[in-house]
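pinned: reference chain
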Amino acid sequence: MTTLMWFQAIGILLVFLIFVGLMMARKLPTILALPLMAVIFAVIAGVPWMSSDPETATIAKTILSAGSMRLSGAIAGLVFGAWFGQILNKVGITKSIIRKAAELAGDKPVLIAVLFFATASIIFSAAGGLGMVILVGTIVIPIMLTAGISQFVASIVVVSAVGVGALFNVSNWAVYVDVLGLSVAEIADYTLVAALPLIALSVAMIIFYIKKDGKGRKAWAMPNTTGGGEGKKVPTIALISPLVPVILVFAFKLDIVPAVVIGALVTILLTWPKRPIHVLSSALIEGIQDIAGAMALMIGIGILLNSVMAPQVSSLISPLIEAVLPTNPIMYIVFFTLLSPLAIYRGPLNVWGLGSGIAALFVSAGMTPIAAMLALRVVSNVQAVSDPTNSHNVWVADFTKSDINEILKKTLPWMMVSVLISMLIGAFMVF
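pinned: its C-alpha cells
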C-alpha cells in the first residue's frame, strides 16, 4: 500500500470508530449511521459519484441504488415472518400457548420460568420484532412476578427467549443468504451449534438467579389482555403452527418464504377463523408496520455492504482485515469469544449493524462463508440477550422496572460462555 492509501485506510478506520461511538452514546441512530458511514467511506476511498463506464463502482449507482436493494431477499423474509406472527396472534395461538404453559407450571417458580422461556422461544421462532415481545411479555411477566419471581429474572426469561427464537426464526436467515451467498440448507446445518449452548446456558442462568435472588414481589396489576385472540377456542393441534416453517426448513430444506407461507396457510386451516381473508390481509399490513424500522435498517446495511465491497474501499480495508483474520481453529475460537462483546452497542460484530460488512470483508480476505456465518450467528447471541440498545431489552427493563445495565452485566458472562462452547464445537466443523 502507498502512503496515500495508508492515510485513506486510517481515515476510514477513524470514521468507523467515531460512528461506533456515536451509536453507543445514542447520539446517532443506527438507521442513519450506516448509510452515512457508507457514503463517507466511499468519498475517502475516492469512489466517484457517477461514471460513464458501467463497470466502475460509483456512489450513486453501486452504493446507493444497488445497495438499497442488496438485501431485498432478507427484507422479503422479514415481511413474511412478521405476517406469520400477526396471524398467530389474531387467531389466538400465541396466547393459547402461554396459557397452556401457565397451567402446566402451576405455582412452582422454577418450572414457571423455564416453561415460559421455552414457550416464548417457540413463539419468537415464528415471529420476532418488538410488537411480539410486548404481546408475550405483557402476559408472561405479570404471571412470573405474581408467582414470586424477581423482576430481574422475569426480564432475563424474556430476553433469553428472544435470543433463542431469533436463531430458529427462518425469516432472519435471509440476511446470511444475501450477505454471504449461503443456501438455507447450509445455514440450517449449523443452527444447533449456535442454539444448544445458548439454550443450556440460559436455563442454567435462569435457575441460578431464581435460587440466588429468592422471592420477588407478589403484587402485580395484571394487564388487560382483551383482543388479539383472547378468549378464542384454539384446537390443540393448532398449537404446533409456530413450528411448521421451522420443520419445513430443517427437515425438507424448503426456502424461507414458501415455508412461512405454508405455515400461515396451515395455521388458517387448523383454526379457521370467522373471516380468514380479513385475518390474512390485516395481518400483512400490521406485520409490515411492526418491522418498518427493521426494513429501513436492512436498507442501510445493504448500502454499507456495497460500500465496503466496492473495489476502491475494499482495497484499503482488506489489508487491515487480513492482519487480524483467524487462520486456524484455536485463533478462531479465541478471536470470536474474546471479541463477542463487540456485538453489543451496534458494534463491528453486530450483524444488524456493522457486522454484515465485516463478515463480507472476512470472506473476501479468505475466510469461508460458513465460518463467517457461524461466528456471526454465535456472537449474535450476546447481542440478542445482553445489548442495552435492543428495543426489546429497553421495553422489558422498563416494564419490569429493572436496571437495563444490570441485565447487561449479569447476562454477559453467561452469554460469553455460550459463545465459547459454540465456537469450540463449530471451529473443528468449519476448518
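why pinned: The chain has a mean pLDDT of 85. Residues 327 and 357 are 19 Å apart (CA to CA).
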